[in-house]
Amino acid sequence: MTAEPSAALPARAGDVRRDSLALRMLRDPMAVVGALLLALLVGLAVLGPWLWPYDHTTQRPEAMLAEPSAKHWLGTARLGEDVLAQCVRGLQKSLVIGVLVAVISTALATAVGLAAGYFGKRADRALMWGVDMLLILPSFLVVAVISPTLRDRSWLYMVLVIALFQWTLTARVIRARTLSLRGRQFVGAARYMGAGAGWIVRKHLVPHLVPLLVIDCTLHVSAAILSEAGLSYFGFGIQAPDVSLGSLVADGSGSALTYPWVFLAPVGFLVVTVTGVGLLGEALRRALDEGEAHAV
Amino acid sequence: MRSDAEQPDPEQPGAKQTSAQQPSTEQPGAAESDAVTTDAVRGVAAGSDAAEEPALLEVAGLSVTFTGDRRTRRPDLRAVREVNLTLRRGECLAMVGESGSGKSVTASALIGLVPGRAEVRGSVRLAGRELLGLDDREMSRVRGDRIGMVFQDPLAALLPVTSVGRQIAEAVRVHRRVSRAAALRRAVDLLDQVGIPDAARRARAFPYEFSGGMRQRVAIAVAIAGDPDLLIADEPTSALDTTVQAGVLNLLEALRKDRGCSLLLITHDLGVVARSCDRVAVMRDGRITEEGGVLPLLGAAVPAGHLGELLAATRDEERAAPAAPSAAGAPVLRVAGLRRHYRARQRLGRAAPPVRAVDGVSFTVLAGQSLALLGESGCGKTTTLHEILRLAAPQSGRIDVLGHDLSRLTPRDRRELRRQVQVVFQDPAASLDPRMRVGDIIAEPLDIQRASAAHRATRVEELLTMVELPPGTERLRPGLLSGGQRQRVAIARALATKPRLVLLDEPVSALDASLRVGMMRLLDNLRATMGLSYLLVSHDIQLVRRSADQVAVLYLGKVVEHGPAWSVLENPQHPYTRALVDASPTTDPARERSRERVVLLGDPHATPGVGCAFRPRCPLFPVSDEATRGSCVTSEPELRQTHPEKRQFAACHSRQLKTIIDAY
Amino acid sequence: MSPDTLGAAAAGKRWNGPAVRRVAAWLLRQLAWRGGLCLAAAFTAYALASLSFDPLAELRGQQPRPPQAVIDAQARRLGLDTPLPRRFVEWLAGLPRGDFGETVGGRPVADELWRRCGTSLRLFLAGSLLAIVLGVSAGLWNALRSGRASDQFFLVGSLVLLSVPVFVLGTVLKMVWLPVNEAFGTQLLYFSGETTPGSDHTGWAAAGDRLRHLALPTLAIALPQAAFYSRYQRAAMLDVLGSDFLRAARAKGLRRGQAVLRHGVRLALMPMVALFAFTFGLHLTGGVFTERIFGWSGMGDWLLHGIQAQDATIVASVTLFIAVLVVLAGLLADAVQVLLDPRVRGVERR
């Protein structure tokens, strides 16, 4: 009576959560479609240059603005460049930029959000003031303004600048989450055990933020790809002779009504890439939410 | 904002309400014989008047099954299985059971509001009319009008953005064609009836502006707005302090008598049942195991069945001999004149006076002893605990732990003291990190103190044995454990560094009654075998009586009475202590119904500023003589020895305490 | 119960003297905080632009190269010989007089500012309003029908829509609408500009002409925003649907629909108000693109022009304009929240 049935432990002692995250994702058609799309695109981006005899700079004056054909699957552009080769080149750029920006801005957001949320008071006020200011200042504007300076430098600078203006919303969310986690009793308990800030951040805060970070990371990939495309579209991003999906769209949009493939091909790549990332992020969010529901 | 996870739709499309109307009409015999084991008992309770009047509520073969989800592999859950119940007009039926026994789901099924995707079968008849299978339009005419519902948490049930008057008026206008003004007048009237002072003005206030007890009264006003025949109250007092509980229960009782409505009271507290209910139905695993009159069932010398188990746990606590005084050693913890005031939060720039959470508290815990801080929410007991745990200089006053003055600790001393002072919180679900494994949780204090890996492994094993958890538990995450197992993990963690002083913050109040005794016994044994000292923070009289050597009663940040636990609780000398003791119900219906009790008026948190802080709620103040009243108003009472031979102290101006309480 | 107290109860006198003063104090503090943000944003833009731009490049690049004295004179006129912070302060000092400085070309910024301001606001506010209406209703509708095919369709649809860059969406809208225009044999909806140039419409005809220009760019602004809002609104409504409030409201006797409409929607809208304000700035960028695509000469178009013309004054002016808009949106959201939620208001009336 007094001793509870302590022998009645759950049968599955293994890591229930992690095992089933993959399984949950596999059962979600959204995740499967998103993953397949992305795998296809990444494969194309990596292998593409070996599959065709042309690269994005090859010009064939004898076939300018040719319709899609067996030779040029997606037709040719104004100077006879193969549209598919151009798009694959742009795709590589987009994917690399997307991932880099996402990693940098998520890391930055985590650092700032954690610092502001955990230490509070003055650090919080100062950091959040900065965040608010960056939120007011459209990132597009800043990148566009300093683009002349970046023109002669590596595109990696552009990655940095895009990242610098993308982390702010995530930082706010992480700060809010940190504030609420800091108030949770297990954090208080750790503090009463003598744990320092480093210990609490590593052992209690970060593990709880991981799902959020993963989801936000996918959002940042999408946002960065779209940012880069927007900048390049208006001529502030990747500069000729290099191409990006954004600059290709810009080149094609003038003749969108007359030679639609020049416009639609890069648009298709752009939209499918971002949608794929979005689907995966959405599915991840669902799967992690379910995991959360099970854990508690 | 971020999550738009798939949430089950409250009603559509999954909730099928399959009604089986026939069983009770066509073959009443079958339904009856199906009805568990208690026909004999029911006969006793119902007596002869059962035949004359048809029952108000007849429930037959009620089953609720929550539909699982194949994608997430959640299986179906049969929460309620073949429940049969009858309730006559004006009667009060209690449904008791431990958490998860299906009693709340049953109540939701009666009004057709089972949350989530669920299948409801069986028959629910109100005054002869079948309710299951009615569509939303018809059922909504029953809800609120014929059946009123009071939920456990009034804060979650009252809309935060609308004034309470308008919420009650809405409930009136749903069923009656009256003007807005008339409905509002009626709302004020109802607020008055449920005992809200100054109802006309308070009708304009929002729920967050009320205290817990007053909020529940508002929720009751909403429930009775349609003048229902049946009032269902789902754990209406579980979230409230004991002295406030009594008032709300009295209100429900009075409403039932005045209006002649029936009351279905869902509770896990057998004391509440003993006090005011006619009949009781006991639930376990979705079934009713016993049903019958409260007097015969609870009054029986040896109660049978599951009710017997439930009662045994509580009675064990009630009847437990007061703790044998432990051998006391040197002071382990000494608190003197501790103060902690908070600056009140400003809203829209409005300044507020500081909150005096702890206002001059002193006590001493001796080695090997257990001292209880007793009081209701907001009395400052938890703040005191956290002030000690911080191991830092207090705002004002002095704290000595193991001979170290906390305001003069070197970092090195503090690290050492962290090892010696540990804590077990109330709710293990909150105090254990859900993402860590039990082994890592238990070893966390060791890891922070950088213990060696070998020591860590053996120590974890030792600790699991100590708290009676099977080996292998260390690989699990706390989410997979039961509440009791989790609290054992929390205890093991507290003992990891072999502390000398353990602070227990309501260590068993999040657990079901049947587990409490076992947990306290474990704690008592550990104290004896490991030579620990406890500072026990609790609102639970029974628990304090059982496990504490000394007790200090706190009211609004001040100690109003302290002394040996048995002496203070058997013979309280302060009116507040007396009220606390009286408010704690016993499960013997005969005793519970006959005893006199001191009931406090109003809600806590009303500080007058000068004089005795307890004055606004004090039952003695109005009946005291002029001179005493004068000192109550002007000066704060000091702790005084109540009897030359006793080490018991109380802070009250009234000299004829005992006689006045008895006369009252 | 006297009729007087009842009357007071019904009227609910909320704002008494001290309350007004408190609200005024709150407003002042908010304005100080947010005004500071605006100035800091404008300064950042001004500084970055000044450091990065070379407004003399064009002059220097001319063939034949103008004499050095001409270049120096232009530099002086643009204030390039004074230090940056001072130039900014001087620019600031002109603002209260309505003087926003001069463009590189020597024309006062203020002249064009107000005209473009109206153009942009008309387009962007119409788009945002449409987006809020569409997004909120789609979100609420899908939450009520969560799990069904239509919900799944909207979910994927909103994801795809959010994956289409604004500058593509504009062009796609044009492509889609072209056959419609051709089928009618006339420009039913226009692809570029605010009005038909040289038209002499008046009254209703003029308004109609404007509307026919407004339709497509408004849609281009509204669709992605609506997709964004609908996802959050759906989540917020699902939260409310699972809450005890609705169960309690139905226990009173409200039908499901009544409970959802009277209580659920109001509760689900509250978190959205903050979101509208929060993401206002993000969506403004979409407005910039849309103006370019549809040939509207608004602030966004001007900003792009300013960057291409290496003009720091235009950039700073437009930034200030955007910052003020974002800040006002935030202030408005706070005020609406105070009205919707008494807990934020916290005016005690005991």
From TrEMBL, chain A:
| UniProt KW keywords | Cell inner membrane, Cell membrane, Membrane, Peptide transport, Protein transport, Transmembrane, Transmembrane helix, Transport
Q: Which residues form the ABC transmembrane type-1 domain?
A: 91-281
Q: Which residue spans traverse the membrane?
A: 30-52, 95-119, 126-149, 155-174, 258-280
Under the heading InterPro entries, the entry gives:
BP-dependent_transpt_permease (IPR050366), MetI-like (IPR000515), MetI-like_sf (IPR035906), OppC_N (IPR025966)
Is Transport one of the keywords UniProt gives this record?
Answer: yes
Give the bilayer topology: Multi-pass membrane protein
Q: Which GO terms describe its cellular component?
A: plasma membrane
State the Pfam families in the record. BPD_transp_1 (PF00528), OppC_N (PF12911)
Principal localization reads membrane
Subcellular location per the Swiss-Prot or TrEMBL entry: Cell inner membrane; Cell membrane
Q: A single GO BP annotation from the record?
A: protein transport
| Family stated for the protein in its record | Belongs to the binding-protein-dependent transport system permease family. OppBC subfamily.
Name of the protein this chain belongs to:
Oligopeptide transport system permease protein OppC
Q: Which organism is it from?
A: Streptomyces zagrosensis
From TrEMBL, chain B:
Q: Name one GO molecular function term.
A: ATP hydrolysis activity
Locate the compositionally biased regions of type Polar residues: 15-27
Q: Which UniProt keywords apply?
A: ATP-binding, Nucleotide-binding, Transport
Q: Which Pfam families match?
A: ABC_tran (PF00005), oligo_HPY (PF08352)
Q: Does the keyword Nucleotide-binding apply?
A: yes
InterPro entries cross-referenced by the UniProt entry: AAA+_ATPase, ABC_transp_ATP-bind, ABC_transporter-like_ATP-bd, ABC_transporter-like_CS, Oligopep_ABC_C, P-loop_NTPase
Where does the ABC transporter domain lie? 59-310, 333-581
UniProt-listed PROSITE patterns: ABC_TRANSPORTER_1, ABC_TRANSPORTER_2
Instruction: Tell me if Transport is a UniProt keyword of this record.
Output: yes
Listed under GO biological process in this entry are:
peptide transport; transmembrane transport
Q: Where is this region: Disordered?
A: 1-48
- Which family does the record claim for this protein? Belongs to the ABC transporter superfamily.
Please identify the protein, giving its name as recorded: Peptide/nickel transport system ATP-binding protein
TrEMBL record, chain C:
Where are its TM segments located? 31-53, 123-141, 153-173, 272-294, 314-340
Q: Name one GO biological process term.
A: transmembrane transport
Domain ABC transmembrane type-1 as annotated: residue spans? 117-333
Record-linked InterPro entries: MetI-like (IPR000515), MetI-like_sf (IPR035906)
Note the Pfam families from the entry. BPD_transp_1
Topology within the bilayer:
Multi-pass membrane protein
Q: Which CDD domains does the entry link to?
A: TM_PBP2
Q: Can you list the GO cellular component terms from the UniProt entry?
A: plasma membrane
User: Which UniProt key words apply to this protein?
Assistant: Cell membrane, Membrane, Transmembrane, Transmembrane helix, Transport
Say which family it is in.
Answer: Belongs to the binding-protein-dependent transport system permease family.
State what protein this is by name: Peptide/nickel transport system permease protein
Tell me the organism: Streptomyces zagrosensis
